[in-house]
Design goal:
alpha/beta, Enolase-like, domain 1, TIM Barrel, 2 domains, three-stranded antiparallel sheet, 14 helices, binds magnesium ion
């Protein structure tokens, strides 16, 4: 439509011609902040692996902590957090939807690993401040408790099926887990003939089931190392006699139709989502029927409120949520508040925080698993403080995942 036609059309609709002809500055939220953000800091530390922490400070002495996903390009995530600082200083940290939209919308192009990790870490810190300002744990601001404790699982390891079974038994004896996860394929599987990988997966699943008994839930994480749906289906068939709770990341995530095709072909539950961002990608995954269980990462998918929106989309598809949670104790705490307040939560991935150096990242009480469950903190915010002094003793180290190659030297998937 030409501009002239637009103006005459507006005038015909009864709007003042002058207002249409002379656009005003776009309106924006101008509520006077009662609490103002004064600083946004990022910390990169190594406590066995790199962790990215975000601290948001305010003019009233309240501060909040968040954790951004660490996947390798961590310096880039730190730089992005610092770049967002000028967009946030002076704003009320409790207007979290407004600030989330500021970061998401004004980045304009959909973010990937780095932007969504930075956004998620900042979002956590805003919720920590909101909880402290209200004198309430964060879950009380997000619907309150719908459970009293949080079920979690840990991954067992071992090169041989026997070692894997022993590892699982040790973890259950120590922490009381009611579910255990492992990789179905053996180490070096990218260079193995595929039939050998499938056969080994069946042997590992059988050994694990025999070691833990009939009623412990077993989860298998293929770590997105398989390319073709028919091969992932063969893997699922080999695991089926162990009656898995789920098979995780049986395929890479780029092609959601392929994941949906796999789900139609197999008879065990398919779980995925740790590499997906925001409600938008999870909506696509669930619309094509690509998952029985979704696994957003709260440090990557957009934060705790975004993960609750993802859970709501999943709930409408009768799909449960088992958050991906391989990072540090703060990520676990944010997930505990999510799980406490979310009806279709099923189980949380967990790496114990009861030993140094991980336990040194937070002040005060250690987070512990009892009978396979995590306690829900009842103090304001997340209920814990990060230890900035300890950060100084934990300089970051450059890292990347171990590279794996196929038999002919081509890069594999990791
Ligand atoms: Mg995984």
């Amino acid at each position: 439509m030409k501009r002239r036609e637009f103006l005459s059309g507006t005038a015909m609709a009864g709007l003042p011609l002058q207002a249409a002809a002379m656009p005003q500055a776009s309106p924006r939220y101008t509520g006077k902040p009662e609490l103002k953000i004064t600083d946004v800091q990022a910390f990169l530390v190594n406590a066995g692996r790199n962790y990215v922490y975000v601290k948001v400070s305010t003019d009233q002495g309240i501060h909040g902590w968040g954790e951004a996903y660490s996947a390798g390009p961590d310096e880039a995530t730190v730089a992005t957090v610092r770049d967002f600082k000028s967009w946030l200083v002076g704003k009320d940290p409790r207007n979290i939807e407004y600030l989330w939209a500021t970061m998401y919308n004004f980045t304009r192009f959909p973010g990937g690993l780095v932007v969504n990790a930075a956004l998620s870490g900042i979002e956590h810190a805003l919720w920590d401040i909101a909880g402290k300002a209200a004198g309430l744990p964060v879950y009380m601001l997000l619907g309150g408790k719908c459970r009293e404790k949080i079920r979690c699982y840990q991954s067992a390891g071992g090169r041989t099926p026997e070692q894997l079974g022993e590892s699982a038994k040790r973890l259950i004896a120590k922490y009381g887990y009611t579910a255990i996860k492992c990789a179905p394929h053996p180490m070096g599987s990218q260079a193995m003939p595929y039939n050998a990988v499938t056969r080994a997966a069946g042997q590992r699943a059988e050994a694990l089931r025999q070691a833990v008994g009939p009623d412990v839930d077993l989860c298998f994480d293929a770590h997105a190392t398989i390319w073709e749906p028919y091969r992932a289906a063969e893997m699922a068939e080999a695991l089926k006699p162990a009656r898995p709770l789920f098979l995780e990341e049986a395929l890479r995530h780029e092609n959601m139709d392929a994941m949906a095709e796999l789900r139609r072909r197999v008879q065990i539950p398919i779980a995925t989502g740790e590499e997906l961002y925001t409600k938008f990608q999870f909506q696509q995954l669930l619309t094509v029927g690509g998952a029985d269980i979704v696994q957003p990462d709260i440090c990557l998918a957009g934060g705790i409120l975004e993960q609750k929106k993802i859970a709501a989309i999943a709930e409408s598809h009768y799909v449960m949520v088992a958050p991906h949670n391989p990072l540090g104790p703060l990520a676990t705490l944010v997930n505990i508040h999510f799980a406490a307040s979310t009806p279709n939560f099923i189980i949380l991935e967990y790496h114990p925080d009861d030993e140094s150096p991980r336990k040194d990242l937070i002040k005060g009480d250690t987070i512990v698993v009892k009978d396979g469950y995590l306690a829900i903190p009842d103090k304001p915010g997340w209920g814990y403080e990060m230890d900035e002094e300890a950060f100084k003793r934990m300089p970051p180290r450059p890292w990347h995942r171990a590279f794996e190659f196929q038999r002919d030297g081509a890069p594999g998937f990791i």
